[in-house]
Design a protein that fits this description.
771 residues, 62 strands, single chain, 8-stranded mixed beta sheet, mainly beta, 10-stranded mixed beta sheet
Length: 771
Amino acid sequence: PDLVLAGVWRAALAAALPEAHWWSPGDIASGRVPAADITAAEPAITDTAQKNLVTIPSIPTFTAKPPATSYFAVGNDATPLELHVASRKQVNVTRLTVKFEATTNNPADANFDDDKGGLVYQDNAQPNFTLIRFKDQSGAEPFGRKDLALDVHQDQSQTFVFDGSFTVPAGTEKILYFTAKTNTLLPTGEGYKVTLVVDGTTVVDADTGSPATFAPATDLAGPTLTSLNAAMEVTSSPSVPGSKTYVRGATGADIAGLRFKATTVAPNTVTSVTFQGYVDEEGIGGFLPGADSDNGSETRVRDMLPEVSLYDGAGAKVAGPVAVSLEGKASFTGFAYAVAAGQTATLVVRGDISKTVELENSPNKVSFDVTDASMDVSVVDDKGAKVNVHGQNPDGGVTPTFYTTIKKNGTIGWAWAGNGGAGVAGREVFLGTLAADVKDDAYDLKTLTFRQSAAAAKSLVRVRLEYPTTGTGKASVSQDFIGTSATFANLPIVLPRDKRTEMSLYGTFISRDAGAVNGEQVKVLYDAAGGIQFVSESDGTSFDAQAFGNPDFAMGANTPSAMTVRFTDLAFAQAAGGPSGAVYRNATAEVLRFTAKAGPEGPARIRKLTFKVTPADAGKPGSNNDALERWADVNGDFQDDDGIVNLKQFTAGSPILLGEDSSTHIMYSVVHAGTKTAEPSTIDSTAGDYGLIEYAFNEGSELSVPAGITVTYSLELDVTKLDSANEYGLAVDLLGAADLQWTDVPSGTYAALTGIQATGLPFAIQLTVKQ
């Protein structure tokens, strides 16, 4: 009954649609279904699910559809342009003009083509493309075929004009494929693109026979496609892993790598690969497969690498481990590593190097390569079909481009840089830096010794070694400094492979009351002949001080520290609330306020202060008409000039004026034309001259700065001596270096320190003296 009902419906539909054809299941099975549609597609029609809207443009329109892949296979048909033509009314395309361009290997000499790419193979040898044509969806060629001009001058670009007739029915979108057969000798990696030239393209209205306006109005460029071998290519890997050096016992050593470039099929899946190992014993006779015996005894690849694994370039494991055979072969099977169409992947052979392999006199070299990729590599496409593989000894075989060197041990370049300066008794001070530049191995540093290079340092009682841990972390360990040395034992310090590790040494000085020696020189250096031990993390070999006789563990710079013991320190700074901006000429004005602070370990005594005053009116023609000359006239000599300045010390209660007396001397001089003169009344100042005001205190009458206390001082200056014609600038400096003298000795005689041993100097203030 169902078949009868179907027959009735078929007869009824055939009567209603006499031009339609209805096909039985037998017709379909026999392949008798025609390719043509029953009727043309309608514009702006939606499917019943309202998902896919097809919109036909109002005027004929050309578009280039991006291909599924940006590669085309060498030796096959290439389709660098898929041209879609859509029209709401019926039109005929009667002419197509295209520009065919090579985007790579533009020859330097236009008269000579020495490359195999482009449109012409080498120097007019043969075309790289033949059977150049447009094909429609049924395979027809409505515009015929064209040939490339065999002309090196047109190696990079040629233009073709296709005349013919291609009908686009109303409300449809039709496709034309620009296709060409590629030369089987065309190299991989050549780029090409095809552009539809609008000025050379003609579209005719089927109803009127007149040319029809179409879009786009400018040339339509297709994508750039790149040639690719029809077989997967195995080549040398230029950077991963490259040529590396390891020591015996190294784990996870990257030994060799190869690049696998997929075809246009997506994806290419590598399922097996066999590597051949090569060895050059002691690096003197060249590489041989499997084994080498340059020095008489035989060393095999498997002696150094009993088994290996396969990793990708990102470090993910692909296969293994597998044993290396007696012949040095490593075969990986039963895995599936996919490489996307046209893409390149790197596979790396990695293994643990034997701790016991006998390297004898010199390092050995080892590499892995594929002998013949067509036999040693298995690849399938996404359907499981075999993909051909090309590449014979891609890394060079017995003359490898990249190889791994295996050594007995790594190297460490040691260096100690002692720190200089002053350290206060009772404090911890920085003594210096020990650096270890490690290559080819990692080491565990177990023991270190530091010693005093001169007589025993009475002030140094303890040292602390600070070393890096994981990340940016640090840890430290302390040790008593007994006599002239300190040894750190059972250290947990790791010296990583191919990295510089720096360790800092600090020392603690005993306090003044406990017997620190003022002015003692602490000269600590690294003791290369003392207790030392570092152990290879690869094979466990332990090294002691005798290792420094080996150039692999050379001791470089070993400069002692130069730390001087002090009883306190002294710091100067500008004080808050001091003068700034403008002062007025009608009075003696405060021009500088500053502080002096001694360290908490002890007091300081100031023996000398020097102030530099630079008035901007200096250099006026004539005598006694600027501040430098007028200040000189107050007393006229160097020894007694308190008439131009006041120095005040602020303590609890009223400020104390530090004036000229039997223990305090105030001296005024002028630096004239670069020379200091103690008789300033005898000179006429010039531009650039400045004055010096020195306060000198007798021994025993110094300015006292108590331990841990900040003392404030104020300097006042007779600014009425500046010229009254204008406003003038005034610079006031508190000088350091030899212009400051002080001591850290609480009482008694001493050798004066200078501003070099203090901090905060010099500093200056800029003022304007107003009327």
